Amino acid sequence: MTIKRSTRQPPVVIVTGAPSGLGKATALLFARHGWSVGLIARGINGLRATHDEIRRHGGRAAIGVADVGDRDALERAAASVEAELGEMDVWVNVAGSGTYAFFDEGSAEDFDRVLLTNLTGSVNGTRIALRRMVPRDRGTVVQVGSAIAYRGIPLQSAYATTKWGLRGLHESVRAELAHKGSAVVLSLVSPPGMDTPFFSHAQSELRGAVPHVPSGAYAPDDTAEAILLAATSRRREWNVGAASVALLLADHFLPKTPMDWIVGKLGVTGQRTTSPKAVAARDPTLHAPSEHRSGTRGVFGDEAIATSLVWQATKRPALTVAVFLAAAVGVSALVARRQSPPRIH
């Protein structure tokens, strides 16, 4: 990891859920681009691992220990990070957890805990960030949503509930900031399924199986890049990966009842595995942080896609349009040539 250095005071980003997976990938990417990075989570061991990696490569980082569901603790962590690094420019709500179960069979306590972390935690983070950013009239809050905020899937009713709620928060608060004429930006990044430790860390009530990454999952790198772009642009929303776009379009255009049947049939079997590797990696963290240091990737690397062509097109729209136009011109010329009458000598 090479850190880009700047002669001016580096901008400051605070990332929740920084010890592993997408949160860690995001923190490391910001550091590589010369940002000072505030790291917030419950588990000190994971925080130290990310902190040490950034510092080892010459970056600047600070730790704040807090459960995002605890508003007062999160406020203290944010104040501590700002005292060490300076005023935040960007806040990223990444912290998230999940539980795999049929809604009517799963634990109510597990469901409530997912809501507390994913939704209430993002509400807390957004409120804490805006309390600082709105008076300063600058800053960006990035929400990490999900493709299933557009179409819920079986076994993940708790997670889907939080991401639908987060999308509602995003739209409501953006409208309020527009009403106030505020320069503060809210951006929503919607990733597809990713190969991260999320599946090992999620609570599970799957009988005879453990959670499996959905087909078409990606490495977290593209989503981390989308978060960085969201932090440095004023774009309202970023969709990463073909799955996000496909679910959005399918739910919009296809009849709802057939979609329920299709997603119900494919969604259950596709999210279960008996892989010994996945079983051995189980480390549920819903109710307590992991004692282990985690990386950015999970155990399904051999199934994950390195990068998304949809994402490459999304971040380079002008180039994509130019390629399509050039292709259209080429095809039109070929068709015209084939349809032109033969020349008579």
Defining traits:
alpha/beta; disordered N terminus; two-stranded parallel ribbon; 345 residues; 11 strands; globular; 7-stranded parallel beta sheet
What integer value in Å does the Rg equal?
Answer: 22 Å
Unreliable runs, pLDDT <50, ≥5 residues? 2-7, 319-328
Helix content: 40-55%
Give the oligomeric state of the chains in this entry, treating copies of one chain as homo and distinct chains as hetero: single chain
Spell out the helices and strands N to C. EHEHEHEEHEHEHEEHEHHEHHH
**Principal-axes shape call:** globular
Structural class: alpha/beta
Beta-strand fraction estimate: 5-15%
Number of strands: 11
Largest sheet: 7 strands, parallel
Quickly count the helices. 12
Description:
With 345 residues, the chain is α/β, with parallel strands linked by helices. 49% of the residues lie in helices and 12% in strands. The protein contains twelve helices and eleven strands. The chain has helices at 21-32, 44-56, 71-85, 108-136, 157-180, 198-201, 221-232, 242-253, 256-269, 276-280, 309-315, 317-339, and strands at 12-16, 36-41, 60-65, 90-93, 99-100, 140-144, 185-190, 203-204, 210-211, 237-239, 272-273. It has a seven-stranded parallel β-sheet with strand order 3-2-1-4-6-7-10, sandwiched between helices. Strands 5-8 form a two-stranded parallel ribbon. Strands 9-11 form a two-stranded antiparallel ribbon. Strand 6 (140-144), helix 5 and strand 7 form a beta-alpha-beta unit. Helix 4 runs parallel beside helix 5. Residues 2-7 and 319-328 have low confidence and may be disordered.
